[in-house]
């Protein structure tokens, strides 16, 4: 059948190109999740701070990046980032327009959006940790760094992991919006293949199927991670 040949790995097939685009989507989402993890941790710390200014700044960040449409954020990062780089380049004698790599823009834009959601996940996880355990650790003379490493972080990871899984799925879908910058991720490649062959339904269905496959694999990975963390936590609790 013609559609099987088009989705295959032969000379006329787009199968290999679509798989490479899916890997690009995963790489972009991983980079965005890493950016969001760092940003989210900083914002969560600000929202939990005893200083009012830090709390206000944290609230402003999460409100803006959760309230502004993701596509608008990507446009602002893409055009604003290129304008900034071009301006800085001109200061050092460069001429003409300097574009920022779409992958970098995508990772930063989706990462900053992800950071707003991860901040709320981390904040809720910290608040879920028993205050009694922390006070008991301090009463035993544990150093703050030891309390942070041995008590706070393991429990925050346990409480935050389900939320991080949801943020991952959100970032995976948001990565499709980076197609507007020209990055050859899965949606952009599906569009190119559909336009080249005029088989729009076939390639958009194939792209959607690959997204579902990535989502299914991601769910299994996070479910196993949650089970492993829960098992380790119960084992440590029983040992203590």
Automatic annotation (TrEMBL):
Keywords: Cell inner membrane, Cell membrane, Membrane, Transmembrane, Transmembrane helix, Transport. The chain crosses the membrane at residues 20-46, 72-92, 98-117. Residues 22-222 form the ABC transmembrane type-1 domain. It is found in: Cell inner membrane; Cell membrane. InterPro entries: AA_ABC_transptr_permease_3TM, ABC_transp_permease_HisMQ, MetI-like, MetI-like_sf. It comes from the Bacteria. Gene3D superfamilies: MetI-like. SUPFAM superfamilies: MetI-like. Its main location: membrane. Belongs to the binding-protein-dependent transport system permease family. HisMQ subfamily. PANTHER family: ARGININE ABC TRANSPORTER PERMEASE PROTEIN ARTQ, CATIONIC AMINO ACID TRANSPORTER, MEMBRANE COMPONENT. This is ABC transporter permease. The lineage of its organism: Bacteria, Pseudomonadati, Pseudomonadota, Betaproteobacteria, Burkholderiales.
């Amino acid at each position: 059948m013609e559609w099987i040949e088009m989705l295959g790995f032969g000379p006329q097939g787009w199968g290999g190109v679509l798989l490479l685009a899916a890997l690009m989507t995963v790489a972009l989402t991983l980079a965005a999740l890493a950016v969001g993890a760092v940003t989210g941790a900083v914002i969560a710390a600000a929202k939990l701070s005893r200083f009012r200014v830090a709390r206000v700044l944290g609230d402003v960040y999460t409100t803006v990046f959760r309230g502004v449409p993701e596509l608008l954020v990507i446009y602002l990062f893409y055009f604003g980032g290129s304008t900034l780089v071009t301006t800085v380049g001109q200061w050092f004698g460069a001429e003409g327009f300097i574009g920022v790599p779409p992958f970098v823009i995508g990772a930063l834009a989706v990462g900053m959006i992800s950071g707003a959601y991860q901040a709320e996940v981390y904040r809720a996880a910290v608040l879920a940790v028993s205050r009694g355990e922390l006070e008991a650790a301090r009463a035993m003379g544990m150093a703050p760094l030891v309390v942070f490493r041995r008590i706070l972080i393991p429990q925050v990871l346990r409480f935050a992991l389900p939320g991080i899984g949801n943020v991952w799925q959100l970032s995976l879908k948001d990565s499709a919006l980076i197609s507007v910058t020209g990055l050859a991720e899965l949606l952009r490649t599906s569009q190119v293949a559909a336009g080249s062959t005029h088989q729009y339904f076939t390639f958009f269905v194939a792209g959607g199927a690959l997204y579902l496959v990535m989502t299914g694999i991601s769910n299994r990975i996070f479910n196993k991670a949650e089970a492993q963390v829960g098992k380790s936590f119960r084992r440590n609790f029983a040992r203590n």
